[in-house]
Amino acid sequence: MLDIKFVRDNPEIVKENIKKKFQEEKLPLVDEVIELDKKFRAAKTRCDELRNQRNVISKQIGGLMAQGKKEEAEAAKAQVKAMADEMAKLEEDEKVYAEEVKKRMMVIPNIIDPSVPIGRDDSENVEMERFGEPVTPDFPVPYHVDIMDGTFVNNFACSIQELELVRRVTDQGSHKLVDCHMMVMNPHRYIERVAQAGADIIYVHPESELIVSATLDLIRQQGKKTGLVLNPNTSLESVKDLLPITDYLMIMSVNPGFAGRDFMLYTKDKFIQANEDRIQRGLSYHIVLDGGATREVIHDLYHNCGIEGFVLGKQELFFQQDDYNTCINRIRTF
Q1: Are residues 302 and 154 in the same domain?
Q2: Are residues 191 and 287 in the same domain?
Q3: pLDDT category of residue 283 using cuts at 50, 70 and 90
Q4: How far, in Å, CA of 135 to CA of 302, rounded?
Q5: Is 290 designated active site?
Q6: Domain that includes residue 218, residue range
Q7: Which residue in the list 146, 149, 179, 200 is annotated as catalytic?
Q8: What is the pLDDT of residues 297-332, one digit of tens each?
Q9: Nearest 5°: phi and psi at 5?
Q10: One domain for residues 83 and 143
Q11: What is the mean pLDDT of the chain?
Q12: Is 250 helix (H, G, I), strand (E, B) or coil?
């Protein structure tokens, strides 16, 4: 999603970007967003002014009461109540304006870097010309399964039973890799069951265990590949001792728990650090991105940061006009 300040300051650039994507029907949204944002900021400013005035008058009421000026004190109280009522209305307006702005901003297309222009269809896509035909990586690409317990993250996702169902489907014809991202507290308790359910790679968060090295050892004992996940607030330095026993390092560029979030730019340094660490120490763990994987992000991290794997979601795989094979092959051209 674009930054509202950018839209406010550069409406013509945003509109030109919409035209380039052949989505002219979305042009009115830009002016609507700017007008709604103007109303939102006006309501917020007025609310702040009232809050400051109310605080001043509230302090005066005690002094008036102490001086025996009851009528003036009552008038001040009535003024404070009127301000509180107006503030309540303004706060409701703020919520409505903010929600309306968000709804429109989610529809306005992001601005893609000029180096990666997009055509009407794949025949016009410069990526196809610039980067050639889809490239198949030299290591298997797994299906990604999220397991969430509602405690480690504030959401629920697949269970071990659903992982078993995924395994049955992926075993039809030929065995395909399945990785399991465990967003649960104390995953050590479930490693054997997850391995038996069919996960080939098992990811755990270092914050989820007191002794995460024991959990990684248990994963290897099951004959599975080990995966370590770094949240945006988890430093690479804090897990360096574990990387020699890590097969896959997955770096979250969004806060975990929900899909469709935007790539957090400050996490890019961690990808660079991980790639440098891997080279300097002669380690062989694969580096994977989870979160905000747009075509611009994928192109940048693959070509400039040595990142090999990308967990695909709403931005480039789900809810697209093309089928999954087309989407994946397009991404492989980046």
Answers
A1: yes
A2: yes
A3: very high
A4: 12
A5: yes
A6: 122-332
A7: 146
A8: 888 898 888 898 899 887 777 777 777 778 777 777
A9: -65, -40
A10: no
A11: 85
A12: strand
